Amino acid sequence: MFGLVRSGQGRGGGGSRDLRADFFRGVALWFIFINHMPGNWLGDYTIRNYAFCDATEAFVLLAGYGAGLAYGAMLDRQGWLFASAAVLRRVGTLYIAHMFLFVVFTAQVGYSVAALDNMAYLDELALDAFGEQPYRALLEALLLRFQPAFLDILPLYIVLLLMLMPALALLNRPRLLITASLAIYVAVRLADVNLPTWRGGGWFFNPLAWQALFFIGCALGSSRRAGDPAPIPRSRALMAACAALLAMGAVLVVAWQRPEPLPYLPDWVASFLSGVDKAGLHPVRLLSILALAYLLGHWIDRDAAWLRGAAAAPFVLMGQHGLPVFCAGIFLSFVGRVALEQSEGWPMQAAVNLAGLLAMVAIAAVGAWYRQRSGEGGRKRAVAERTALPAAAANRTMAE
């Protein structure tokens, strides 16, 4: 497994790879898998139970960080047009992956409804539209205006990348990028603007608000690519403020989720907590994930030895192959949910969580193996072209 983990150049080729981002992206993907299974005991120990943020915020922030590194390097070397084309190509890949996942997930739920005679799945997962207007539902899914539960993260990412194309012009001016992004964020929240959906209302993850977190990540990645090891300098006062914010948030979140302390909370506190929305990325959620990222970014050294150790390797590997792992996690989480509904004891809990994790790691390992082999093939062809040698001779040259 260690040989499959990439620790050299990032996608954009700018600087050595930051395994911290890969590790925490892998952890976020694992948490998403866990949290999508009602009745999963491990769900009580994920970040959403102790902070005003969860794996989705981590995933979007790290996606922006990776985009700032990768596409920023392309921007520097080959210009805006090429970098924009690369972003658009990635959008196409995500769109195809989303539609494939949509079809597979819908078929999976439909089969479970028929086999288990449980119509509640359709209502809970917002797939009842297929029973009423199947052709219209499929069309609206193609337009990203119909997003069943659990299938709303990739559409968010698609729109964020589309927004990144014009924003590439500001990538080398991170402060201006963040200022413009936060101005849009404030305006969107004040005006309550969202993208429309087929059946009324707005997107569950409002891209016009979530872009703030994504572009902050882009700015951090761009600064890192420019050679700044710490885009936001280490400050004891700022670290203390971040720790206090997270500690206060943990107390309030735990209190809000338990029935015993609820009657003792002041009315204004209860009103505030009920208004911390996820769809529009409430400022408290935004500040919480940024505070957590700041602390972890300074507490964990970029070259920490444990990031290359056995315990971290599965999560680093998953983080480096996020798209197939995410899609597989959605499929596996519903399988796990059905299994836990049949038996929720600890043997089934252990089997579902362990099997799901191993499956996602295996998918990442296959992706890493394929990428490694195809990369070797590309290098061999490049050697052959430069030396005008046949492929067999190029193989010997590479071996030497």
Automatic annotation (TrEMBL):
Keywords: Membrane, Transmembrane, Transmembrane helix. InterPro entries: UCP028704_OpgC. The chain crosses the membrane at residues 21-38, 58-75, 95-114, 149-169, 176-191, 203-223, 235-256, 282-300, 312-336, 348-370. The keyword Acyltransferase does not apply. Coiled coil: none annotated. PANTHER family: BLL4819 PROTEIN. This is OpgC domain-containing protein. It comes from Craurococcus roseus.
